[in-house]
Design goal:
GO terms for molecular function: L,L-diaminopimelate aminotransferase activity; pyridoxal phosphate binding. The protein is built from eleven helices and 15 strands. It is α/β, with parallel strands linked by helices. Strand 11 and strand 12 form a beta hairpin. The structure holds pyridoxal-5'-phosphate.
């Protein structure tokens, strides 16, 4: 008899995005002429930078010639890509990260989940609330939690509430936790962390021998020069942090797939006999066994992000989305709606007006303006009363959506 992984049965049925689709579909059927604009998605809309496309085409040509054809590459990624990342993303910002500590992958989403392979079952795990749902669901699947309660929280996880009251940055816990997920700039709130805030986390992690899982998928959107882009800009972080990065949001690789995870060589965890084990060795073993690398063609595309043209073109992409975010913030504010985020992140986190629940605001916005966003409560109990609007869209759609909101929606 084939037994299944019962942990999957604990998962809350994929609720948020299917429910959004259901409501949008019902509305569209009842109002077939309503021009709906979707500002709910966390996916990019603008095309791949030219530098990346050219590199991908050139690499494809190489694959068509026996003398330049490539079969399996290194599981960790090609050194020419890892070296560019090490020098331009890390060493240029004063982070002592070596190419050998960088692992190329086909996505941060998978890395965030896969990393649990190398950690034990009895870790105390902390996430913020609201949170990127991948961190929670992968822990449920791995058997690191109990059942879900009526608030939507899983037994065994430590939830750190974030809201306007704490600037959307979690208080350092008083209890001891072993693994902590942090995401800055944050999805869904668009919040950022100062060096001081991250230093407090690093100090905590070092004191408790915990490991921080730092998701920097949106670091390229940081425009405030005082903010850290990497956890390794913080003193001591190499002893207690793993960092996830992705080409999805800075260079539009959501459909092309390339990301990276940094595992410092000196980072250690405890074996059950009390000995210290290098995390790098475990992750290297895990990747070599379960992964055969990202395609050569795609890695050449990612490498082009670091060329002179690539740097300029990705900057232009990010400025484009940040300008969208600025327009969203300005227009919503002028409609009397309180907004957060949106200055160093492609997400605007809206306080729902009239104390509406996240879903009531979703319905009201859809019915009065035909604009679709994402209810904050879908990211966790503490997201109730908030709403996420994404800046990933065309300028035309953003302008039109904001025009409708300012004309039809005064809070
Ligand atoms: C988009 C996103 C990522 C990137 O995921 P990929 O699998 O690399 O596309 C990672 N973390 C967060 C929070 C994201 O929103």
């Amino acid at each position: 008899m084939a037994r299944i992984n019962d942990n999957y049965l604990k998962l809350k049925a994929g609720y948020l995005f299917p429910e959004i689709s259901r409501r949008v579909k019902a509305f569209a059927e009842a109002n077939p002429d309503a021009p709906i604009i979707k500002l709910g998605i966390g996916d990019v809309t603008e095309p791949l930078p030219e530098a990346c496309r050219t590199a991908i085409i050139e690499a494809t040509k190489e694959m068509g010639d026996r003398s330049t054809f490539k079969g399996y590459g290194p599981e960790q990624g090609y050194l020419w890509l890892r070296e560019k990342i090490a020098t331009q993303d890390f060493q240029a910002r004063g982070c002592d990260i070596d190419a050998s500590e960088i692992f190329i992958s086909d996505g941060s989403k998978c890395d965030c989940g896969n990393i649990l392979d190398i950690f034990g079952k009895d870790n105390k795990i902390a996430v913020t609330d609201p949170v990127y749902p991948v961190y929670v669901d992968t822990n449920v699947m791995a058997g690191n939690t109990g059942e879900i309660n009526e608030k939507g929280e899983y037994e065994g996880l430590v939830y750190l509430p974030i809201s306007a009251e704490n600037n959307f940055t979690a208080e350092i816990p008083t209890e001891k936790v072993d693994l902590i997920y942090l995401c800055f700039p944050n999805n869904p709130t668009g919040a950022t962390a100062t060096k001081e805030h991250l230093q407090a986390w690093v100090n905590y992690a070092k004191e408790h021998q915990s490991i921080i899982l730092f998701d920097a998928a949106y670091e390229a959107f940081i425009s405030d020069p005082s903010l850290p882009h990497s956890i390794y800009e913080i003193e001591g972080a190499k002893d207690c942090a793993i960092e996830f990065r992705s080409f999805s949001k800075n260079a539009g690789f959501t459909g092309t797939r390339c990301a990276l995870t940094v595992v410092p060589k000196n980072l250690t965890g405890k074996a059950s006999d009390g000995s210290d084990v290098e995390i790098w060795k475990l992750w290297n073993r895990r990747q070599s066994t379960k992964f055969n690398g990202v395609s050569y063609v795609v890695q050449r595309g990612a490498e082009a992000v670091y060329s002179e043209a690539g740097v300029q073109q990705t900057k232009a992409l990010i400025s484009f989305y940040l300008e969208n975010a600025k327009i969203i913030c300005e227009k919503l504010t002028s409609a009397g709606i309180q907004v957060y985020g949106g200055t160093n992140a492609p997400y605007v986190w809206v306080k729902t007006p009239f104390n509406l629940s996240s879903w009531d605001f979703f319905d009201k916005l859809l019915q009065t303006t035909y604009v679709v966003g994402t209810p904050g409560s879908g990211f966790g109990a503490a997201g109730e009363g908030y709403f996420r609007i994404s800046a990933f869209n065309t300028r035309e759609n953003v302008n039109e959506a904001m025009k409708r909101i300012t004309e039809n929606f005064q809070a």
